[in-house]
Amino acid sequence: MPVKNIMISAGEASGDFHAANLVKALHKIDPTIHVNGMGSDKMREAGVELLYDCREIAVMGIIEVLAKWGTIMGALDILKKSLANNPPDLLILVDYQEFNMKLAKAAKKLGIKVMFYIGPQVWAWRSHRVKKIGRHIDMMAVLFPFEEDFYKKAGVPVRFVGNPLVDEVKTSMSLEEAQKTFNLDSSLKTIGLFPGSRKSEIFRILPTLLESAQKIFDQYPDSQYIIPVASTINMDSVQPLLDRYTLPIKIVHSHIHDVMNCCDAIVTASGTVTLETALMTTPMVIVYKMSGFSYNIMKRLITIDHIGLPNILAGREIVKELLQENANSESISNEILKMLTDNEYHQQIVTDLEAVRNKLGDSGGSERVANLAYEMLSPNFQKSE
User: Fold this and answer.
1) What pLDDT does 297 receive?
2) Which residues make Cβ contacts (< 8 Å) with residue 309, sequence separation at least 6?
3) Which of 13, 155, 206, 336 has its CA 20 to 30 A from that of 41?
4) Is residue 226 helix, strand or coil?
5) What is the pLDDT of residue 124?
6) What pTM did the predictor assign?
7) Residues near 295 by Cβ (< 8 Å), separated by ≥ 6?
8) What pLDDT is stored for residue 334 in this prediction?
């Protein structure tokens, strides 16, 4: 039997992580499957032949994308050429919507089957694009039950596979072991500063998080701070910012869920990490900053009331969202201080996050999407299935 070939395209740290787990699950089904594509360290460790490392193009926002446009198009050209010269049996796209939809279009012209995993959040903005998406993909593998209903109504082939984070978000150490590993003082309150996994997020968000930490520390000195730095971020871009402060800050590069478990509260950039934090039921405040030009365009296109996944799933604001000019050190520090000093407020957030966790379905998400991908490798697979 000939070896099956799959290309996977992931454009940032969270996509790299989910794609790697998908590849591991695929190799349990068939160890001979060959996988290449775009990603980073996690995919490489899972045995993927990397055609391009996504760290150079992990940006968000219109201005930010334009600044990297040449690099992004160069990466797209590499993957398109690989599709044409060595057509895979299946192309799997993981998040990174605009880039991956261009790649999907190229694949369909070549007659290559396409699955979109963690697909475009068109239910949140530009919902009119759903029909176009349906023309370029053969299957949408979605993480949330409401997404399945949305795509079905639009006539797009879809299957709810569940959220892989249900399995992936777990601690590897006891709280005491984690505190010792990260050199944290168990007698102090621990505040997590999560600036995101993109260089552009570090540039826009980390300075504000550090300024917020200083304000919190000035009013609540029995506190310490921890920053997980994503594998997509070079410490050279972070250290100069840290050097401006004399705060008790620990830097870690792994075990993010153990980090979350150590935290009494977290300030986090918007994104998948907010859902991971929700699964750990750690109170948080969500911050979101991009260029003013990008934001002014985006806010006209967004059709939902919240940007944070925990709030979207809850159908209301259960954790504070601070956007653009509201994402300032004064507002952030006030919210964190309230969590630290108002036990009733803190516990209500925990209770609400537990309810969100219960909405995310059963374990086995990576295995289900791997089974779907393997099913699509069959020559008898039909788009209408």
Assistant:
1) 52
2) 272, 274, 275, 278
3) 206
4) strand
5) 45
6) 0.71
7) 61, 323, 324
8) 97
Query: 150-177 pLDDT, tens per residue?
Result: 888 888 899 999 888 888 899 999 999 9
Tokens found for residue 332: 């952030």
| The one-letter amino acid at 298 | M
Token reading at 341: 């000093």
CATH number at residue 151: 3.40.50.2000
If we measure between CA atoms, which residue out of 176, 46, 183, 90 comes closest to residue 372?
Answer: 90
pLDDT value of residue 306: 74
Q: How far apart are CA 93 and CA 96, in angstroms?
A: 8
Question: Domain check: are 241 and 371 in the same one?
Answer: no
**Structure-block tokens of residue 116:** 């979109």
Out of 55-64, 91-100, 216-225, pick the least confident.
Answer: 55-64
Q: Which of 246, 250, 243 is nearest to 227 (CA)?
A: 250
Contact 106, 98 (CB under 8 A): no
Q: Which residues span the domain enclosing 44?
A: 5-164+364-376
Share of the chain residues as helix, strand and coil, in percent rounded to the nearest 5: 50, 15, 35
Asked whether residue 243 falls in the same domain as residue 345, the answer is yes
